[in-house]
Write a structure and sequence with these properties.
Number of helices: 16
CATH superfamily of the largest domain: Mur-like, catalytic domain
Strand order of the largest sheet: 4-3-2-5-1-6-7-8-9
Oligomer: single chain
Number of domains: 2
Distance between the termini: 56 Å
Largest sheet: 9 strands, mixed
Shape: globular
Radius of gyration: 22 Å
Mean pLDDT: 91
CATH topology of the largest domain: UDP-N-acetylmuramoyl-L-alanine:D-glutamate ligase
Low-confidence stretches: none
Number of strands: 21
Structural class: alpha/beta
CATH architecture of the largest domain: 3-Layer(aba) Sandwich
CATH class of the largest domain: Alpha Beta
Helix content: 25-40%
Strand content: 15-25%
């Protein structure tokens, strides 16, 4: 109730003011909105890149930031949908510079707090809905209702036929919609799916896609983009060409090269669903062990933490549970909540043991093993020391972010640099 009052008395008037202040720039733009729990950034970037290939002067606003042409705009730390003062300012800059289409990553918080008030979307899509932000929304039902608000200000909707949100959306949408999916009959349904170590192939409506990004869940992101682009009358061949060499997105499946023979990857996956999909895709294409570095953010949804532990323990071989943005919580408490979701019969190894002893325990383990390493750099160092040829290490949760928030202080941080520091730690001669 307090949040609703704050939304009406503070957030809504603020949005109204900045619409007026910047002279309603969104009315001169074709806006495309992407909401959902996971996959928003990747889908938004796909649509943006395809629009550019089609010769359209397009812009994009995502978790990573805003950009158009050769300009990039910082949208702040730990923020997906910016404050309305910044949203409207960016829209005004884009209009003044001749941008015609803007792809926006839109969160449930942003919709609940009227950050996109006054904006009409030409098309809006939902990627999926899974366990997240229940510290704010309390229930999945409230979370879904908040997400669905985007369709109240959209001319056209794109919804996931395979997702649990489908029935609610189908029964409540007041606008025309198309569906996409893999498992259930949809307007855009993928078939003939084939994956290998280096390629993912599938067909949809007599179109054939092949991409070098072999994560099967990317099919959903590509299908979402295809639905939107079809509605915008963009030749589908442009998307086919765009995904052939999948657009790189900082902190999303970003590979950090090394000379040790294993893969080292940075990803933003920070929900049970995202971890499940990401790790399952890696499991399929990893010959050796799958090693996961992850934690959970402090001051946010605590109920997902045991689920994260459970998901990782069911798929990975080794997990190193470590710090994320702890905010004002104790890392010991956060990690124990993650660990509470892991079967008590599975082996917790003391990371302070001798490395030879740790390696011996890992080698002889027939099931999943895990470590509780409070310092994130120490977690990277340990993962790199344990990894062997054909293994995969994935660091989840921080992705593109360049700080780590402990208490009220933002400390400089980079996942890619953490990997490189760990490479130097293992082999100072080659990485010094």
């Amino acid at each position: 109730m307090i949040q609703k009052i704050k939304n009406y008395l503070f957030h809504l008037p603020k949005s109204v003011f900045y619409n007026y202040f910047y002279k309603f720039p969104s009315k001169k733009l074709k806006l495309i909105g992407i909401t959902g729990t996971d996959g928003k950034t990747t889908t938004a970037i796909l649509v943006y890149e395809a629009l550019k290939k089609a010769g359209i002067n397009a812009g994009v606003i995502t978790t990573i930031g805003a950009k158009y042409g050769n300009k990039e705009i910082d949208t702040g730390l730990h923020m997906t949908s910016p404050d309305p003062s910044l949203i409207q300012k960016i829209f005004r800059q884009m209009v003044d510079d001749g941008v015609t289409h803007v792809v926006c990553e839109v969160t449930a918080h942003a919709l609940d707090q009227y950050r996109f008030y006054g904006c009409q979307f030409e098309a809006a899509a939902i990627t999926n809905l899974s366990h997240e932000h229940l510290d704010y929304f309390v229930s999945m039902e409230n979370y879904l209702v908040a997400k669905s608000k985007i369709f109240d200000q959209s001319l056209f909707a794109v919804i996931n036929r395979d997702d649990d949100s489908f029935e609610y959306l189908k029964n409540n949408l007041k606008t025309k919609f198309f569906t996409y999916g893999i498992n259930k009959k949809s307007d855009y349904q993928a078939s003939n799916i084939k994956t290998s170590k280096s390629i993912l192939k599938f067909s949809v409506n007599q179109l054939n896609f092949a991409t070098d990004c072999n994560y099967q869940y990317q099919i959903y992101n590509i299908l979402t983009a295809l639905c939107i682009l079809d509605h915008l009358k963009i030749n589908p061949q442009i998307l086919i060409d765009t995904v052939k060499f999948f657009p790189e997105t900082k902190g999303r499946r970003e590979e950090v090269k090394n000379d040790f023979g294993f893969k080292s990857i940075v990803d933003f996956a920070h929900t049970p669903n995202a971890l499940s999909k990401t790790l399952s895709s890696l499991r399929t294409n990893t010959k050796g062990k799958l090693i996961v570095i992850f934690g959970a953010t402090g001051g946010r949804d605590k109920t997902k933490r045991p689920e994260m532990g459970k998901v990782v323990s069911n798929i990975a071989d080794i997990a190193i549970i470590t710090a994320d943005d702890t905010r004002n919580e104790k890392i010991e408490d956060i990690n124990q909540q993650i660990i509470s979701g892991i079967d008590k019969n599975l082996l917790l190894i003391d990371h302070t043991n001798q490395l030879s002893q740790i390696k011996n325990l890992v080698k002889n383990a027939k099931k999943f093993v895990y470590f509780n390493v409070p310092n994130r750099q120490d977690a990277f160092n340990l993962a790199v020391k344990l990894a062997q040829s054909d293994d995969t290490i994935i660091a989840c949760g921080k992705g593109h972010e360049n700080t780590m928030l402990h208490g009220n202080i933002e400390y400089p941080w980079s996942e890619t640099e953490a990997f490189r520091a760990a490479f130097r730690n293992r082999n100072p001669q080659n990485y010094g």
